[in-house]
Design goal:
By secondary structure, this protein is mostly helical.
């Protein structure tokens, strides 16, 4: 074997080892990266939905209070109107 052929053989084997290592590491780390990315975006969506939920709960409290106030006003107005009718 000549020196040139030996170099070609060493280069090919080294290249094969490096490519194998790169492919193996891609196969091993791709699922982890993919899952982390998905978890990140899902947690962002959860946080956004939770903030909407909190604001809607507050709005619901406010609307319930308004409804109670309106019912109370209606009762007072009805009682005043009934008194006027009776007189």
């Amino acid at each position: 074997m000549t020196k040139k052929e030996s170099f070609k053989l060493d280069f090919k084997s080294s290249l094969f080892i490096v490519l194998t290592f790169i492919i193996l590491s891609f196969v091993l780390f791709f699922p982890k990266i993919y899952l982390r990315n998905n978890i990140y975006y899902i947690s962002k969506d959860i946080n956004r939905l939770y903030s909407h939920y909190i604001s809607l709960k507050e709005e619901n409290k406010f609307l319930k209070q308004q409804l109670e106030d309106t019912k109370f006003k209606n009762q007072i107005i009805d009682s005043i109107n009934l008194q006027k009718i009776e007189e």
